[in-house]
Design goal:
Chain lengths: 470, 482
């Protein structure tokens, strides 16, 4: 985390803080190297020889990061140098594992479709989105201007699968998809970002009211009843998601992010307790009322009792992880294809099986680096909106990973969320590239030395509209 | 807002730590449990993708893996079908594996530590890893004779080399075709298993080792050994042999087979009592010797309730609880709670044949690496010395008399002296008796010891089991040029 000595604002006046762009380039090169090595190991282990397309893949994959790097060097030169290498290595590992599962499918003769090239295409679209965001969005504070529009868009995206017929929106019991013409989109992934932007703008606006007007009860600052409105509204939305889309993941994600952002904005721990209480209450009621929630929870508590039914996926996932053990079966050496939907929901257990405990923990640590660099950005950035936005986005990645990995390892009930950057799935990958683009933009602002003619000092608590008006 | 942000950062660290701890728990603490779970087919499919080693008898592969075109790269085959089923067991996708396939799986699958250096070499040479071969001690002639003898009955035959403990033959009927349980077609496997399940006697049970039965008069050899070992008895010592024996402390009377009389004088020599298998004489002899001597001798012969690993784990044999002198009388003629596996019965004959020294029975002669180099050769081991060579000689003399003059005549081999003992064990009212024979040949220079068990054979050990034992021993002696 950010110690005072690494705080760019602590730099002596007049000195320019290092941009660390070359560090980023070297790390990106390393990430590409790791990816290519992993791809080669997969090919040699499974087919005995390198595939002809590996050169194309390698060139393409490397080109993506060269483009990303050049754009960042030009348009966000002070951006945090660790964000993108972490994303690159995660994306590369994901592509490798998807390719590895493609090969398993081809060998079993189950399918002739290859998903890895499709995922590479999605990554390319993700990079396009990244470039667009970094180039067009020159100041993250502009986003707050569109906060209410984005909030509405987010709600619509979130609600869309619920109102669409199940034939379009339901996969494996969760109504969180839009499937049109062979493409599957999880609009929730985009809704997540839109809503975080909205939350950030809204909370910066209202945080004084939410923080100050409170009564002290039993050592806790309890907000006034009428100020409970926003948290209740989000709570209702997430309960609706849980009930109508049967998606504990999106529900948990949405509510968790909001409550944490509320806490950060108001500095009132009571909001965390209120949020926790609300969610526990809502979840309990949902458990009592809805059969599918009960089934989920029962299979979570004892997956082995339902090993041939609802617990099958989780049990297979645990088998994979257990068989992998400390060192793993080696890339191409395990049977991760025995876990259903290994490419998307269960890609983490595929990684755990073949890379072992060491590999899986390394992947978790890479996420940790990504998240903590994001949170560091939010600590350092000067404006309140940027702080809250960066904090919300970074926490969203952490919270999503926790919910997903917790699900496939039996720590939490299974959800339909995907592992960011690694799992197969276009919407998740593209949306997360967008998320990182915003983080990169904020981190550039955070580390950029203040312009020599000091701008009129803006109180952090003041409304963002005033800041934007400059 | 920085203070709560720092706390969020710490919370994230805590959440990720939770994940890491949980993954540690799954991949380290529960790793073995998850790996070996019956629902986890990973280890099995991994095994199927390797060339599993063969099980070899007399230079012929009785279980081997052949390459196939389907996803499981190798198919297990058993060319001799049911003949070796009791020993080889099966290697099934659905029902795990059994018998040898299970007991020496590490070698056959190539994961045994003795194959380790070769596996390292495989890593560097890119050679496909393969399993090692297991060469059994079985003799094809003995095995075929045993299977022929057991045709149509439920039972088991065990033949041992008395001087080493090597198992020369091990058969159990009814039997089955292990290949049909080891195919790659789950539906066909299930159908065949259902067919086997429908049978009254489970063909997959190896009756030679996995179950124990009342031995009847076969146990009299052990009581004789206990008597002779006291030094107070010789084969010619005259002991009481009444027509009816009232068991001490009860009004229950014990009679001889078919109510016959052992001796008009109501007493006879020990050798004569064994020759005609006199129940009253041995019941009284057991009572006179006392529980401790009988039990200790039984344990010295291996009846200590513990199984052996030959390398399959066998059921134990024991004399059971003896609560009273009456019970001791019944136990002394191999009834009541006395139980023996056919393997144990063969061990009794083998110990007598080997001058009173019991060798540990074993089935694996050699373990060979895939390139046929021998990486392990069996080393015969002594299990115990139940009787002195002198007592063993006396027992041999008595058992020769059983075959020459007594209940075991049907085991005779032309031109060769045979020693043996019959057993006819009562099972329950209205249920046919179990029929036993144990013996060895040649009596003066024993090369093979056998036990034949026929469940509910309905006759006597002398007329049902003794002829099978004779054929098995003769097959071996002739096969050896004897």
């Amino acid at each position: 985390m950010a110690g005072p000595t690494t705080d760019p604002r602590a730099a002596a006046p007049g000195t320019v803080p290092p941009k660390r762009r070359n560090t980023e380039l070297a790390l990106l090169g390393f990430a590409v190297l790791i990816t290519l090595a992993a791809q080669s190991i997969v090919d040699i282990t499974i087919t005995g020889s390198l595939r002809a397309e590996l050169a194309t893949f390698g060139g393409w994959f490397a080109a993506l990061w060269v483009v990303v790097h050049l754009v960042v060097r030009r348009f966000a030169p002070y951006a945090d140098p660790l964000l993108l290498p972490a994303v690159a290595v995660l994306t590369g590992l994901g592509l490798t594992m998807i390719h590895r599962l493609d090969l398993a499918g081809l060998q079993d003769g189950e399918t002739t479709r290859e998903d890895a090239p499709v995922q590479l295409l999605w990554a390319t679209i993700g990079v396009v989105l990244f470039v667009a965001v970094v180039v067009v969005l020159r100041d993250h504070r502009v986003l707050s201007r569109f906060a209410y529009t984005l909030g509405l868009v987010g709600l619509v995206l979130l609600a869309l699968p619920a109102v669409l017929p199940a034939s379009i929106s339901e996969v494996y019991g969760a109504k969180i998809w839009i499937r049109v013409a062979g493409f599957s989109i999880q609009p929730g992934e985009f809704a997540k970002i839109c809503l975080i932007v909205f939350f950030a703008a809204y909370l910066v606006d209202k945080r004084d009211v939410l923080a100050l007007a409170s009564r002290r009860v039993a050592g806790l600052e309890i907000p006034r009843a009428r100020d409970l409105g926003p948290v209740l509204a989000v709570w209702v939305v997430s309960i609706l998601v849980l009930v109508f889309e049967r998606d504990l993941g999106s529900s948990l994600l949405l509510f968790g992010i909001f409550v944490v952002m509320l806490y950060v904005a108001t500095e009132r721990a009571s909001w965390l307790l209120i949020g926790l209480g609300l969610f526990a209450g809502g979840a309990f009621i949902a458990y009592q009322v809805f059969g599918h929630v009960q089934v989920r929870v029962d299979t979570w508590l004892d997956p082995f009792a339902y090993r041939d039914e609802g617990g099958y996926q989780l049990v297979q996932s645990l088998f994979g992880l257990g068989t992998g053990g400390l060192f793993g079966a080696g890339l191409g050496g395990g049977r991760p294809d025995q876990v259903p939907v290994a490419k998307s929901d269960f890609i983490a257990s595929a990684l755990g099986e073949e890379l072992g405990l060491f590999g899986l923990v390394a992947v978790i640590v890479i996420y940790l680096v990504l998240v903590e660099r994001g949170l560091r950005t939010s600590l350092v950035v000067r404006d309140a909106f940027g702080k809250l936005l960066a904090g919300g986005l970074a926490f969203a990645v952490a919270w999503q990973l926790f919910v997903v990995l917790g699900g496939v390892t039996g720590l939490l009930p299974l959800t339909g969320l995907t592992t960011p950057f690694v799992a197969y799935g276009g919407s998740s990958l593209v949306a997360n590239f967008g998320l990182v683009a915003i983080l990169v933009r904020i981190s550039d602002a955070a580390r950029r030395p203040a312009a020599p003619p000091a701008p009129p000092k803006t109180a952090i608590g003041e409304a963002p509209t005033e800041v934007v008006s400059r | 807002m920085n203070a709560p942000l720092r706390r969020v950062a710490i919370s994230v660290l805590v959440l990720f730590t939770l994940l890491i701890v949980n993954v540690n728990y799954i991949q380290v603490v529960r790793s073995d449990e998850l790996r070996e779970d019956s629902g986890n087919t990973r280890v099995l499919t991994e095994e199927y993708s390797r060339e599993r080693g063969s099980i070899v008898v007399d230079g012929t592969e009785v279980a081997l893996s052949v390459p196939t075109q389907d996803t499981l790269k190798y198919l297990r085959q058993y060319p001799q079908g049911p003949v070796y089923a009791a020993v080889t067991g099966y290697y099934s996708l659905l029902y795990n594996s059994a018998q040898m396939e299970r007991a020496v799986n590490d070698v056959l699958a190539g994961s045994d530590a003795r194959l380790f250096t070769r596996r390292i070499a495989d890593l560097f040479t890119g050679r496909d890893p393969a399993g090692g071969d297991v060469v059994l001690t079985l003799d094809a002639g003995v095995q075929e004779a045993a299977m022929a003898g057991l045709e149509g009955v439920t039972g088991a035959v065990v033949a041992l080399d008395p001087s080493t403990g090597a198992v020369l033959g091990m058969a159990s009927t009814p039997t089955y075709d292990p290949a049909q349980l080891s195919s790659h077609d789950p539906d066909a496997i299930r159908a065949y298993a259902a067919e086997l399940d429908a049978q009254e006697q489970d063909p997959r049970l190896n009756r030679a080792t996995q179950d124990n039965y009342p031995p009847g008069s076969v146990f009299k050899v052990i009581v004789s050994a206990a008597a002779l070992s006291t030094g107070e008895y010789t084969p010619d010592t005259v002991i009481p042999a009444p027509d009816l024996l009232t068991l001490p402390g009860t009004s229950t009377t014990l009679e001889n087979f078919g109510g016959s009389s052992c001796s008009s004088s109501q007493e006879q020599s020990l050798i004569d009592a064994l020759t005609i298998s006199c129940n009253t004489a041995f019941a009284q002899l057991g009572i006179d010797l006392g529980e401790d001597r009988v039990r200790e001798m039984a344990e010295a012969f291996g009846m200590d309730g513990e199984g052996l690993e030959i390398p399959m784990t066998t059921a134990g044999s024991s004399v059971g609880d003896i609560e009273s002198e009456a019970a001791l009388g019944q136990s002394s003629i191999g009834q009541r709670d006395v139980r023996m596996t056919p393997l144990q019965a063969a061990m009794v004959a083998s110990a007598v044949a080997n001058d009173g020294t019991l060798m540990t029975p074993y089935l694996v002669d050699q373990v060979r690496a895939p390139d046929l180099t021998v990486i392990d050769q069996a080393d015969p081991e002594e299990l115990s010395e139940p009787v002195t060579p002198e007592v063993a000689g006396q027992l041999t003399e008595m058992m020769e008399s059983v075959v020459a003059n007594g209940s075991g005549r049907a085991a005779r081999i032309p031109g060769t002296a045979v020693a043996g003992k019959t057993g006819t064990a009562q099972v329950a009212e209205d249920v046919p008796d179990h029929n036993w024979f144990i013996g060895f040949a040649p009596a003066d220079d024993p090369r093979i010891a056998v036990a034949v068990f026929v469940a509910n054979g309905g006759g006597t050990g002398g007329d049902v089991s003794a002829p099978i034992a004779g054929d098995v021993m003769q097959a071996y002696l002739e096969g050896q040029g004897g």
